[in-house]
Give the backbone structure.
Amino acid sequence: MKEKVVLGLSGGVDSAVAARLLLQDYEVYCLYLDIGLGGSGAADAAAVAASLNLPFATADIRQALEEHVCAPFTADYLAGRTPLPCARCNPAVKFPALLALADRVGARLVATGHYARAEGGVLRKGRPANDQSYMLARLPRSILQRVMFPLGDYEKVQVRSLAREFGIPVADKPDSMEICFIPDGDYAAWLERRGFSTPEGNFVDKEGKVLGRHRGIHCYTLGQGRGLGVSGPHRYYVTALRPDTNEVVLSDGSDLGRDEVRGTEPNWLAVDGLTGPMEVTVRLRHSRTQTAATLEPEGDGVLLRMHTPARAPTPGQLAVFYDGDAVVGSAWIV
């Protein structure tokens, strides 16, 4: 008898191919997570499940998403931080929903179409072109010990090819790049529709000289150089956000480098914690860029001593620490 696994089926090509690959060795149960925005996702997921003759269910996660993701997302922007909603959703909403169904049907394992690997509770990178370990680095060990990532050894071009080979209905469906609960990508308008936005204020330089007017601090992030509408002797970049005075500080960008980065709420994966300095590489945003650093304990948080200055480490984003391809842990940048 095949072992059971619950797969998060989104209606996209990645989870569809994951379903087909799992079907070779597992009894697969498919779960679509409904956030209440409509669209074709549920129908596409149901069509994939039907084409593979797999059981299919939906779970309404709107309340959990609001509590654990949308409300903190709003609070971060109002406090001058730049939130990372997917990293919050995975451990608090998405994977708990999958595990809840797994427990009901007697499945030990859950799976998603992420490009990463999980081995014995340790999170590891996927293939370099598509690695998504950064967004998964807040998953605790207790969840990772029950997770499979069938696409961990594949690249996206291979997955597209497999989807066509398997005759999967969504083989040519475009990828979704937006935040799931803000499908048009306009997070500032989303905040404003909810009645949570910041008022207009002043762009200032480091000495406090007024350079122009901004649309509200929720419209900006550290290091931003586009869409500022301020002219001067050089290009301007956002170098600080001041919620207390409702000011956005601009500079020529030469002061954006940081030798030290501090983080809070560490989530340890490949180690049990720090007893002293550890050499790691670190990602400070969702990109392929990794930088060498010395990771040290600092009170309840961590301190990263960067070997080369990091550009605009941004409060609200994640610092994810690696030892080779293994995720050592992560912390929220403060």
Observations:
- The helical segments are 13-22, 41-51, 62-78, 85-105, 133-136, 141-144, 156-166, 187-193.
- The mean pLDDT is 94.
- Residues 85-105 form the longest helix (21 residues).
